[in-house]
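Q: Here's a chain of 63 amino acids. Please give me its 3D structure as C-alpha cells.
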Amino acid sequence: MCYTYLINTNFSVDQLANALIKRGGRINKYYLQEWNRSKPAIVFLNVWIGGKNIREALLKALI
C-alpha cells in the first residue's frame, strides 16, 4: 500500500514564523529581515534546525 501526503507549503514566512513561535520555537530576528530571507538560516524547536533559507528552515521545523 502506498500513501501520498500532500503538504501545503503556500504559507507566507510570517505565518510560518507565527506557527513556530506558538509551538515554543525561537527565531533570530536577523533571519526575518527582508534582505536576509534568502540566506542560510537556523531556527530552534527542541533542536536547532537549518535550511538553505528561512522558509525551508521553518518548514523543516514544523513538519
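Q: Can you summarize the key feature?
A: The longest helix spans residues 13-22.
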